[in-house]
C-alpha cells in the first residue's frame, strides 16, 4: 500500500515538472505523452501507475516484455518498444508491441516489412532513432542517413508508418550538450520535407528520460520515456 502511494506521488511529481517545462515552450502539458518504462519491474508494479492515469508503457528488451505483457492483456495499454531491436527479434516485437521507437537501419526496416507481411500486419507506427549526440556508444543513424532511410521505407516498406524521430542525450550534467542533442533532433524534423513520403510524418519527437525529460520537453518532446522517476529504482535481476 505504501509503495503504491509512493508511486502515485512520483507520477504526480513527473506531471508537475512536465507541465512547467511545457509552459516554458508555449505548449500544453497534454501535448506530451508519458511512457513509463518498467525495465526489471514485475507486472504488479504497473497497476498503481495505471491508477494514476498513465497507459503508455515502454520496455527495452523483447524477452522481458514477452513475459510481462501477457500478464496485462486485460488492460488498455499502449506498449512501446524503446530499446535496440535485433533483426531476429523483429517478428516477436511486432506481435506484442504497438509502436517501435528504435528503427535504426535499412536492414531492420526490410526485416520488419517482411515480418509484417508474414504476420498479416497492415501497418506499424515507428520512430527513426537518430544519433544526434555524435557518441559512438549510442545506437541510431547519422542525421545525414535519415533521407536515404526514408526513401527506402517509402519504396520497399509501405507497411511501416514513420511517425517521428527518437534520440538519446549523452549521460552528462552539461545541460548545454543535452539541450543541443534534443534541439538537433527537433531541427532535423522541421527541416525534413515529408511531402514525397506517404507513410511518414515526423511530427512526433521521442526524447527525454529520467535525468533529462524536463529539458527534452522544453525542446519540443512529444513523448518522454521515464523509468526510475516513476517506477523507482530498478530491481536486481
Summarize the SSE layout with pairings.
Blueprint: H1 2-24, E1 33-37, H2 47-51, E2 56-59, H3 62-68, E3 78-81, H4 90-96, E4 99-103, H5 106-119, E5 124-129, H6 146-156, E6 160-166, H7 175-191, E7 200-206, H8 213-218, E8 223-226, H9 228-231
Parallel strand pairs: 1-2, 1-8, 2-3, 3-4, 4-5, 5-6, 6-7
Could you walk me through the main structural features you see in this protein, from its secondary elements to its overall organization?
With 237 residues, this protein is an alpha/beta fold. The protein has a single domain (2-231), classed as Alanine racemase (TIM Barrel), CATH 3.20.20.10. Helices cover 40% and strands 18% of the residues. It is built from 9 helices and 8 strands. Strands 7-6-5-4-3-2-1-8 form an 8-stranded parallel sheet. Helix 3 (62-68) links the parallel strand 2 and strand 3 (78-81). It is globular. The model has no long low-confidence stretch (mean pLDDT 95).
Any idea what the CATH architecture is?
Alpha-Beta Barrel
Overall 3D shape: globular
Structural class of the helices, strands and pairings? Answer: alpha/beta
**Strand order, largest beta sheet:** 7-6-5-4-3-2-1-8
The CATH class name reads: Alpha Beta
Secondary-structure element order, as H and E?
HEHEHEHEHEHEHEHEH
Radius of gyration: 17 Å
Strand residues, percent: 15-25%
What is the number of strand segments? 8
Q: Number of domains in the coordinates? A: 1
**Structure annotation, total helices:** 9
* Largest sheet geometry: 8 strands, parallel
What ranges have pLDDT less than 50 throughout 5 or more consecutive residues?
none
- Cα separation of the termini: 23 Å
**CATH homology superfamily:** Alanine racemase
Oligomer: single chain
Amino acid at each position: 500500500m505504501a509503495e503504491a502511494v509512493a508511486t502515485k506521488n512520483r507520477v504526480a511529481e513527473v506531471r508537475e515538472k512536465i507541465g512547467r517545462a511545457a509552459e516554458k515552450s508555449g505548449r500544453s502539458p497534454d501535448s506530451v505523452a508519458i511512457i513509463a518504462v518498467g525495465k526489471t519491474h514485475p507486472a504488479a508494479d504497473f497497476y498503481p501507475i495505471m491508477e494514476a492515469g498513465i497507459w503508455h508503457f515502454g520496455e527495452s528488451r523483447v524477452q522481458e516484455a514477452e513475459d510481462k505483457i501477457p500478464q496485462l492483456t486485460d488492460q488498455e495499454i499502449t506498449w512501446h518498444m524503446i530499446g535496440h531491436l535485433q533483426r531476429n527479434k523483429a517478428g516477436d516485437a511486432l506481435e506484442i508491441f504497438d509502436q517501435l521507437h528504435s528503427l535504426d537501419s535499412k536492414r531492420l526496416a526490410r526485416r520488419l516489412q517482411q515480418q509484417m507481411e508474414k504476420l498479416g500486419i497492415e501497418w506499424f507506427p515507428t520512430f527513426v532513432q537518430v544519433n544526434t549526440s555524435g557518441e559512438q556508444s549510442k545506437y541510431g543513424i547519422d542525421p545525414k542517413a535519415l533521407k536515404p532511410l526514408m526513401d527506402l521505407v517509402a519504396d520497399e516498406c509501405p507497411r511501416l508508418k514513420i511517425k517521428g524521430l527518437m534520440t538519446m542525450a549523452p549521460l552528462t550534467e552539461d545541460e548545454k550538450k543535452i539541450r543541443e542533442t534534443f534541439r538537433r533532433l527537433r531541427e532535423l524534423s522541421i527541416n525534413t520535407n515529408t511531402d514525397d513520403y506517404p507513410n511518414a510524418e515526423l511530427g512526433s519527437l521521442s526524447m527525454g528520460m529520467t535525468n533529462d525529460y524536463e529539458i527534452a520537453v522544453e525542446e519540443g518532446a512529444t513523448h518522454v520515456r521515464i523509468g526510475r522517476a516513476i517506477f523507482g529504482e530498478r530491481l536486481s535481476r
